[in-house]
Amino acid sequence: MKKNIYSILAILPFILVSCSKDAVEITDENSVVEDQSELVLQEIKNLGFSEKDIVDMGSYFLVGDDITFSKQGRPQLADKSGNQKQRRTTYLISDNTVGVRIDPSLPTNWKNATRDAMEHWNANSGSSVFLYETDYYWPYQGGFLFNPEIQVMNDNSDPLPNYVIAAAEFPTSDGMPGYRIRVNLSFNGCSVSNNLRFYNMIHEIGHCLTFAHTNSSFGSHIAGTPTSDASSVMNGGTACTLNSGLSTGDRTAVDTLYPLQINAPTNVQATHDGDEELEMTWNAVPGAVSYRVYNNIKESGKTGWYHYRNTTSNRYSRELKRKYRNGYRMRVTAIDANGNESKMTEANYSWQ
Ligand SMILES: [Zn+2]
């Protein structure tokens, strides 16, 4: 069974574990690890990074150009054979339909770059990865029940150095994608065009989905990808030079790790009778045992797509008063017997 797409995110303030310089310099492998940040540092070293390449940024460690490890944990383990090949980190995401929250405070050019990058990933037809925008949540058991799994935000609360354009985290052992992408609005490495924003965001999303740097020894090689790929969007050190999206080799990597399992519904029609009856129909998808209906709302504090209903037939109807139908949008996905979800298809609307 797939796990529920919702996850509970703690909203408690981020509490840093104090860590003295002395504690960090412990070299005896048998030393008792006394705090979480020390453990994270050790894990990064175990991946093959030397201490000089690991920058302590206070609440997180920065490695290479744009890979970050929260001191809260989420250490990554991977072997380090070979290099110059499409590479992955330890964990894969377990649900390939991924909710992305774009922080309202991000500038429009970065919001657009994020949306375009999500579409770029979604358009890769050989993979089931599908990213959808959502900011839907509600209070739940003392915390918040969130739909978004990745948050795209500025770096105000956890600043990046000005030579880093953006940074992302990797998936965790619970099968969740990297939980945030931080954008550095004071990046000063070069002048940043909208195309560069777009390509960098494709790259950062790749990290959240487990992809490491193609031109790095960190991570494990993905079978079937080329031995070197100068056009890989996942090459590191390319914040100012990226000029294309997913390369052929990148697509092989994505399609290998997250293969298309079930086709998306087609011919999705939504009709409204002009009174209060909404009906959706679509062509039955081979291999589908059920379908998920997604709704899109715009309310204060709740915007974007959210999983609304399941249905076992290829139709769905509900009451929807005419006065609420303006701007009303719906999408549907197909689910196979193993719980794999297809990409989303939005309805064609026919409002009477
Ligand atoms: Zn990177």
Structure explained in plain terms:
There is one protein chain. This protein is of the alpha+beta class and 352 residues long. The protein has 2 domains: 260 residues, Collagenase (Catalytic Domain); 83 residues, Immunoglobulin-like (Sandwich), CATH 2.60.40. It is built from 5 helices and 21 strands. Strands 11-12-10-6-7-17-16-19-20 form a 9-stranded mixed β-sheet, with helices on one face. Strands 18-15-14-21 form a 4-stranded mixed β-sheet, with no helix packed on it. The radius of gyration is 21 Å and the shape is globular. Zinc ion binds next to helix 4.
Radius of gyration: 21 Å
Total strands: the figure is: 21
The pLDDT mean sits at 82
Q: Please describe the biggest sheet, giving its number of strands, its sense, and whether it closes into a barrel.
A: 9 strands, mixed
Name the CATH class of the largest domain.
Alpha Beta
Indicate how many domains the architecture comprises: 2
Question: What is the CATH third-level topology name of the largest domain?
Answer: Collagenase (Catalytic Domain)
Topology pattern, helix = H, strand = E? EHHEEEEEHEEEEEEHEHEEEEEEEE
**Shape, please?**
globular
- Ligand set: zinc ion
Provide the CATH superfamily of the largest domain.
Answer: Collagenase (Catalytic Domain)
* Helix vs. strand class: alpha+beta
- Order of adjacent strands in the largest pleated sheet: 11-12-10-6-7-17-16-19-20
Percentage of β-strand residues: 25-35%
Helical residues, percent: 10-25%
